[in-house]
Amino acid sequence: PTVKLSNGVIMPRIGFGTAGLGCERSHRAVLEALLVGYRHIDTAQANEWYCEEAVGRAILESGVPREELFLVSKQHPRDHGWERTTRMFHNTLSNLHTDHMDLFLLHYPRCWGTLCQGTPPAGTWKDAWRALEDMVQQKRVRAIGVSNFSPEELDELMEYAHIKPTVVQSHSDPLISNSRLQQRAEAHGLVYTAYSSLGTQHGYDRPNPVLTNPVINEVHGHLARSMAT
């Protein structure tokens, strides 16, 4: 199944996320995902959780033609600012062995906690967005969007953008739906995509509250389906 973005780009509805796997597991998992039919692959520049290089290696080894793939990556907020966003975007192209991205997102609107240790960002998400607009004009990316923006930040972006976002991504699962952001995305004509839809965002140090939820367990028992489906 596919969905048409507001700029006409066709995106597979189901993507394969690569957060939290580490480099070796990312390589194996993406290679297997491509071999069984996945074509929408989601990664990011945040080395804390992702490994673009391993994803790129798996893509090369799979032999899947580039035109069949829908590649997504995300810019780390420590690189907000026009120059650093541009430089790191081209680094992503190199890591994934491609000359263009199908979708590229701002991963977060700003730094928080320990997310951006070291050199502070040279600019804001607005400067980064201008860099992504330049990448669209240079045909280096087919569609752009954001991840982890609030409804209010999304409204601000819609006012600011010369080239509008097409996709909004955030955490959403049966226990935390993020419905306000979904509704705001729909109001703006944007496609909403969910990550951690099976509950991995809740952490690995305790039982997954989605997959152990008694109501979900009861439903999957009645339907004779796995918890994931």
TrEMBL record:
Chain coiled-coil ranges: none
Recorded GO molecular functions are: oxidoreductase activity
InterPro entries assigned: AKR, Aldo/ket_reductase_CS, NAD(P)_OxRdtase_dom_sf, NADP_OxRdtase_dom
For the ligand (substrate), the binding residues are H107
Q: Where is the signal peptide?
A: none
Q: Which residues form the NADP-dependent oxidoreductase domain?
A: 13-200
Superkingdom field: Eukaryota
- Which Pfam families is this protein grouped with? Aldo_ket_red
SUPFAM superfamilies referenced in this protein's UniProt entry, alphabetically = NAD(P)-linked oxidoreductase
Site (Lowers pKa of active site Tyr) at K74
Question: What name is this protein filed under?
Answer: NADP-dependent oxidoreductase domain-containing protein
Organism of this sequence: Pyramimonas obovata
